Amino acid sequence: MRLSVAGCSALGGRETNQDSWYADDRLITVADGVGGAPAGDVASRLAVESTAASGPDMPPEETANRANAAVRAYASTDPATHGMATTLVLAVLCGDGTVRGAHVGDSVTLVQTDRVEFLGSPHTLGAELVAAGHLTAEEGARHPNRRALVRAVGMDATVQADTWERPAVVGERYLLCSDGLTDALDDDVFLAALAGLRAADPRQCVETLVRLACEAGARDNVTAVVGDVVIGDPAWRR
């Protein structure tokens, strides 16, 4: 088995793109530089480069910690980037027949078969207050600081990534995206678009989703990466 992959990114409503992504036949990843902090583009690039360098055989949580160390090490040498941070989400097709992933922040991972399942919950103040029972879902959606990140790569000396593991099943589609995509599209529109693109190849899928988000007036950068589990030996076994 291998991943058939594609990625697409657009400025959306921003003047610069602070999203970064990478995809090969075993690993896909997206990072979204934290707005309001300096050098978000640098942070996301470093996180993605570190993730790609760690490779698919590294446990996802360790990959996230290496990315965190890379971002913080760079920031310690360049005052202009002090305090920079980024989200990070990744999925890996492992040699043992599983797909494993991790995320830090509010970028999204989902898997699509005959239905769509979101893997993990965002590390935002609103989501964590709801999860802890301090707010109802409706209250959390209205909280003035609901989108504030409580975890991000580069934010602290160490980072705790949420991880997941699933059997690798041929035909399943993994979609990673920055919140610029999901924020721009209503849930019903997003899910309907995914359903309509189920038979599309990865390139058509990501390009269509990014286009729809931009047409809907995306205020943030929009990035999507797809990895379809397909039959065939990946390059690392050839």
Automatic annotation (TrEMBL):
Keyword check for RNA-binding, yes or no. no
A molecular-function term among this protein's GO annotations: protein serine/threonine phosphatase activity
Highest taxon, organism lineage:
Bacteria
Which parts of the chain are coiled coil? Answer: none
Cite the PROSITE patterns for this sequence: PPM_2 (PS51746)
Q: InterPro entries, per this entry? A: PPM-type-like_dom_sf, PPM-type_phosphatase-like_dom
| SUPFAM superfamilies per record | PP2C-like
> EC number(s) for this protein?
3.1.3.16
The cross-references to Pfam families, in alphabetical order and at most eight, read: PP2C_2
Where's the PPM-type phosphatase domain? 4-229
| Keyword Cell membrane belongs to the record | no
- What keywords tag this UniProt record? Hydrolase
Output this protein's name. PP2C family protein-serine/threonine phosphatase
